[in-house]
Amino acid sequence: MPNLFTAESLAHLATVRLTASDRFVSEQLVTELEQHQERLRAANHRLREFAATASLAEREARAVLGSIPQVGVITADVILAELGDWRRFGSQAEVLAMLASCRASALSCFMDRINNQPTSPRANSHGRAA
Predict the structure, then answer these.
(1) pTM (two decimals)
(2) 10-residue averages of pLDDT along the chain (130 residues)
(3) Which residues of 7-45 are buried (b: 16+ CB within 10 A; e: fewer)?
């Protein structure tokens, strides 16, 4: 699928005949997209700064996770946020069980919200609200 928001595509959009109201709306949407992209760049920059100040153990864990195919920065961040210090687990099975419980807790909370039920704070094994 072609990227409709390249410089070339945006230049083409400027040449397309639109009504004044459609032109206004398209310009507003492009501006909104640019603002979202800037916020995303700023958030990614802050996350990289945060990761750079991590402990040696966390940096090593990030390197291991980063070496796994299909595991990107976001997935690594989520895994590390849920696991904390991975060295506290005695086996791979314990790590997988922890990740499964985090996922189940998040899914349960999500389903409560979909069903318009009040969400009670649940705690994962770290004692944090899920």
Answers:
(1) 0.54
(2) 78 92 94 94 89 86 86 84 81 80 59 52 44
(3) eeeeeeeeeeeeeeeeeeeeeeeeeeeeeeeeeeeeeee
